[in-house]
Amino acid sequence: MRGTSGAIRRRPLIIATLMLSILATSVTNVGATTTTVPSAQKICGVVANPAVHVVSKGSTCVISVHVGTNVRIKLRPGFRWGYPMSNSRAVVVTTISLDSLGVDAVTIHAAAVGRATIRTTGTIYCKTGVACPDLALLWSLQVIVTKIAST
Question: pLDDT grade, residue 125 (50/70/90)?
């Protein structure tokens, strides 16, 4: 079991950091049901767009859009993000923007009526020679796609 003692000693720090992150996110969103478009960036990473309605359920980000809408999402800086994936054909990841750390932003397209969850993981970026906790985040966005109201 050579080399595992460092990982065992870091485990409480990792758990404490993740719990603090979850707690901070939960406290800022407690009781929120609907948010305004400008605050969508802060809550979910969604770039302000009048066609996007953000609904926050606790610490879960949920947006509602009409078929055909494109939504730009800016991921939290300081993390190496993986490629976001959709679990449904109702929402398609169309554009992925990269920076020196990996995925920086993504555009999703509401292709059909339905629901989808977009997910990706990110690990904290640490400069060489700097002590840094092992920290990973799961970013998730639920998308509800509705039909365009006929005029």
Answer: confident
